[in-house]
Amino acid sequence: MSVLTILTFQGHKLSLSFGSVLHLYRETYCNMPQPLKTFLGSIYGAIPLSMRYGKLFNEYTDRFKKFEESDEQYRQDFVYHKTLETLIFAEKNIPFYKEHFQKYGVTARDYKALDDLKRFPSISKEDIKVNLDRMYSRKVEKPGARFSGGSLSVPTKFFYPLYSSHIKQKACAMYTLAKAGYKYRDKTLILKERDVSDVQEDTYWKYEPADNYLYLSSNYLNSDKFLLMHTQAKKFNPKFLFGYPSTVLSFIAMSKQFGLEALKIKGVVVSSESIYNVDLQIIKDFFGHDITVLSEYTHSERVVSAYRLDFENYRFNNAYGLSRVVDDEIVGTSFDNFVMPLINYKTTDEALGDVVCFEGTDIAKEVKNIKGRHEAYLVTADERLISVTTMVGGQHLPYDMIKNMQYRQTQPGKVTVIIESSTEDIDKDYVIRGMIKLVHDGIDFDVEIVDKFDRSVDDKHFICRQFLDIEKIRNKK
């Protein structure tokens, strides 16, 4: 392997950017009165990202660009050295990895070629849940706590670099979105993540001036409030639409039901759920065949990143983290995470179709499609559809006490949350209050705690045991 100058975080550990600090107070900002938020957000949004996030943002952006434009030898050398860096740090600073490597008879010194990563043991979400206290370090940067998406059947807590990780994520997002022609602060309609409804005020949208986003409430897409929401969207005149595949398809279905013309947009960006060619075709048939549909693949653990344009293959960004395909499963190794590196981390996401790898390795460059979380819905009493993907996050459930979980629904407006746990100390009322915060109204929740429940081999796709006819409800007149 040739010697490369590889970006590492150590040279920046004391340099906290303006943007990364303010990101910690994002929820405070989002909850401000709209006039104050518009004033502050407009000023903040006008600051170029390179100034807001500092030198590290530009270095990550340059890294991704150079990696994609360089020859095969450069890419292999880069991946080798960043992987070695991760292995050395983990072995030296993380007790779990030191013992884990010893158990399997390997050390960082045994990593001499790209394909040697096969010799190192993999880890699962269950490994993290059991060994969390021994899997992270405070030596380089302050840890921040996150949970893998709460819509997964195995919610998992983990730690990440509190300041630098957000800068890397922002740089990667901007680099990827540019593939669809997006430029920062292009007017964008958002159908994901945050519920912004205020039933008392009869408003189901909220403007976010810093990023120039108009959020529509995903929880009310399938309701008679859609006309109000669509009017706001049309007035906003967005250039792009970002959402989950499920919410974008619901937006299209409701537009058709009300006989509304498609918004004149340049592109659609979908993420967080599996998307298939039939879904892509529906999106392009509705918004126009000349638009670009960009499908993002990322996850809360911030290990692997990939994107797909229209019907092309997914392309892995191996300058972000190393992506392997092992027995059709995507297995990742993180780069630049000097708090809680993840090595040979089993994502439980499935690579579909032919995989293109670095020669002589299972390190993936491209794959036809990725099967991750699929679209699933809860149904309110008035038959609104609420995407299970919006039920993410670690603030509304005592995830530290939860081994696995499922939603089960047999009638509109009533949902049972089944929690597999080794303790009965879980406060059911606390769980119910958290669920109500997410959906606001329309669903009565019940909580059932069990020692163990039946799980499909494909757990991620059975987080929601839904016995209602979703398509019939979605297409009702």
> What is the overall shape?
globular
Radius of gyration: 22 Å
| Name of the level-1 CATH class of the domain at 377-474 | Alpha Beta
The third-level CATH topology of the domain at 377-474 is GMP Synthetase, Chain A, domain 3
Helix count from the secondary structure assignment: 14
- Average per-residue pLDDT, rounded, comes to 88
User: Widest sheet: strand order?
Assistant: 4-5-3-6-7-8-9-10-14-13-12-11
Give the helix/strand class: alpha/beta
| Portion of residues within helices | 25-40%
Q: Give the termini distance in whole angstroms.
A: 63 Å
Q: How much of the polypeptide forms β-strand, as a percent range?
A: 15-25%
Indicate the CATH architecture of the domain at 377-474.
2-Layer Sandwich
- Strand tally: 20
**Main beta sheet:** 12 strands, mixed
Question: What are the segments in which pLDDT stays under 50 over at least 5 consecutive residues?
Answer: 1-15
Can you tell me about this structure?
There is one protein chain. This protein is an alpha/beta fold and 477 residues long. The protein has a domain at 377-474: GMP Synthetase, Chain A, domain 3. The protein is built from 14 helices and 20 strands. The protein has a twelve-stranded mixed β-sheet, with helices on both faces. A four-stranded mixed β-sheet has the order 19-18-17-20, with helices on one face. Helix 13 (428-439) links the parallel strand 18 and strand 19. Helix 5 packs across helix 9, helix 6 (72-93) crosses helix 7 and helix 11 (245-257) packs across helix 12 (277-287). The radius of gyration is 22 Å and the shape is globular. It starts with 17 loop residues before the first helix and ends with a helix. Mean pLDDT is 88; it is low at 1-15.
